[in-house]
Amino acid sequence: MKFSSYLWNGRKSYGTAIEDGIVDIPALFHELGEAAPAHDLLSLIERGQAAVAAVREALAAAARAGKMVGALVSDAERSPLTPLPRPPKMICVGRNYAEHAKEAGFEMSQIPIIFPKFSAVLVADQDAILLPKVSGQLDWEGELAVVMGPAPRGKITKADALNHVFGYTIFNDVTIRDYQFRTTQYTAGKNFRTSGPVGPWIVTSDEIADPHALQIRTTLNGEVMQNANTSEMFFDVPTIIEHLSEFIDMEAGDIIAMGTPAGVGFKRKPPIFMKAGDRIAIEIEKIGRLENHVIAES
To answer: Smallest Cα–Cα separation from 246: which of 110, 97, 111, 88?
Structure first.
């Protein structure tokens, strides 16, 4: 299933994609005279597979009863939000593709490189990315992102890790390169306003048999900048989940961005950075397309 969040009729809501469009989940259950299993997408994820099963059953019941129409939301009626506007944690993995580490001039680290992305910088599909006044070095990083489902406290083994993944989405780890490399800590360069495009969907894990076999492509104004496969990741999803769970508890709704492949802008000759008017898009097989435009900070 594909889940998204959005504004509809002036209120925040969430839904799932079907062939005819988006079915608003609270409206779907209202049509059936039942209470929705969760008031937003994060709450649904926290309730786990039982809540997802309830949505599937409601979709089937509404289709049989002819009660789907009242819950359908057209593209014109909704404004996209990030799938999870306030995830409990947003964690990024650095230099997780060998070719990207090579282009950046680094050896592969034998320990995952981890840094935070704050939820305040997350923006939705079709939202604007700000070119900041203080820098012109606005770069892209197309990434697969993992969305955690309910998980136990403490360490999660690699063998069990994928059982606690709710689904997958697309992430653009927009980076201000000069701020990133002013110190050994990445936090400033990774957390400028609007530097976290994510979405448009969360695709449930049952629809992606292997997250390590997905084509990922980034285009800038239609020109391909990154073209790789998640099979090239140095640390796979279970390894990262196990590593993180050694020092912090995983929570339902945590987003883990798995690193970017080669093809970023700052190491091109000459360097290429995003500028006002540009459109940047990331496509990941079986998930979809995340697209944003760049505007100058006023």
So the answer is: 111
Mean pLDDT of the chain: 96
CB atoms within 10 A of CB 34: 12
Q: How many folded domains does the chain comprise?
A: 2
Could you tell me whether strands 215-220 and 223-229 are parallel, antiparallel, or unpaired per DSSP bridges? Answer: antiparallel
Do 257 and 93 form a contact (C-beta atoms < 8 A)? yes
Same domain, 134 and 236: yes
Q: What is the DSSP string of 272-286?
A: ----TT-EEEEEETT
pLDDT tens column, 1-59 = 999 999 998 899 999 999 888 999 999 999 999 999 999 999 999 999 999 999 999 99
**Quick one: which H or E segment has residue 189?**
helix 187-190
User: Which whole-number Å values give the CA distances from 252 to 86, 88, 120, 257, 285, in the listed order?
Assistant: 12, 8, 19, 15, 24
**Rama region for 277: left / alpha / beta (φ>0; ψ in -120 to 50; rest):** left
Task: Say which amino acid occupies 162.
Answer: L
pLDDT (tens digit per residue) in 166-222: 999 999 999 999 999 999 899 999 999 999 999 999 999 999 999 999 999 999 999
Are residues 286 and 153 both part of a single domain?
Answer: yes
The amino acid sitting at 136 is G
**Domain hosting residue 66, numbered range:** 2-80
